[in-house]
Amino acid sequence: SFSRSSAKFVAPLGCLLSRQKHTLPDLPYDYAALEPHINAEIMQLHHSKHHATYVNNLNVVEEKYKEALAKGDVTAQVSLQPALKFNGGGHINHSIFWTNLSPNGGGEPKGELMEAIKRDFGSFANFKEKLTAVSVGVQGSGWGWLGYNKEQGRLQIAACANQDPLQGTTGLIPLLGIDVWEHAYYLQYKNVRPDYLKAIWNVINWENVSSRYATCKK
């Protein structure tokens, strides 16, 4: 059934059939906290407008989906799936993204995560270069990700188009996501995505990425 096959996609947001509405999560810091690397205007628009829109649209789509399920209207269910993937993915991706950033971020990870990065990419510098290159290379809008391949027990880098959620589309567990939609950087960096990517490493919250890694390894 659809609900079972999509369980890994919907799980982080709670059950599709629950009456709980999705809400915009609060940022764990002020809009201006990541300056000069990401300015307050970008953060405010990105969070209060773009992410909020995904949340609102997701709630609308889920209502329609529930109606289609209740009626047993498979055609309607199928036609709603792209909107569910786009808005659900937008909500999942941004909810991770905000926690991946911190005014006290930057530098390098420590402990188990650093060991895994060295094991799977040779060095932190190699990993940084590779994730940056993959993120720069996303055509149009999308995301660069560091994910964990549970079956193989290793870290992997991947790119996703648009708001495709990493786990729902690749099976990798998301650890670190870099948003390369223009709305994430254009006001400050114009069309020079590499400059934005260079800057974002100064605010990566390695503590959060490390705890995500520790959790998914269990």
From TrEMBL:
Query: Manganese/iron superoxide dismutase C-terminal domain spans which residues?
Result: 109-212
Q: What positions does the entry give for Mn(2+) binding?
A: H46, H94, D179, H183
Q: Which reaction does it catalyse?
A: 2 superoxide + 2 H(+) = H2O2 + O2
Q: Which key words are in the record?
A: Manganese, Metal-binding, Mitochondrion, Nitration, Oxidoreductase
Pfam families reported for this sequence: Sod_Fe_C (PF02777), Sod_Fe_N (PF00081)
- Annotated Manganese/iron superoxide dismutase N-terminal domain ranges read 21-102
Per UniProt, subcellular location reads as: Mitochondrion matrix
Q: Which cofactor does it need?
A: Mn(2+)
**GO function terms (MF aspect):** manganese ion binding; superoxide dismutase activity
Q: What is its main location?
A: mitochondrion
**PROSITE patterns, alphabetized:** SOD_MN
Q: What class of enzyme is it?
A: oxidoreductase
Family membership noted in the UniProt record: Belongs to the iron/manganese superoxide dismutase family.
What is the documented function of this protein?
A: Destroys superoxide anion radicals which are normally produced within the cells and which are toxic to biological systems.
The name of this protein is Superoxide dismutase
The protein's organism comes out as Rhabdornis inornatus
Gene encoding the protein: Sod2
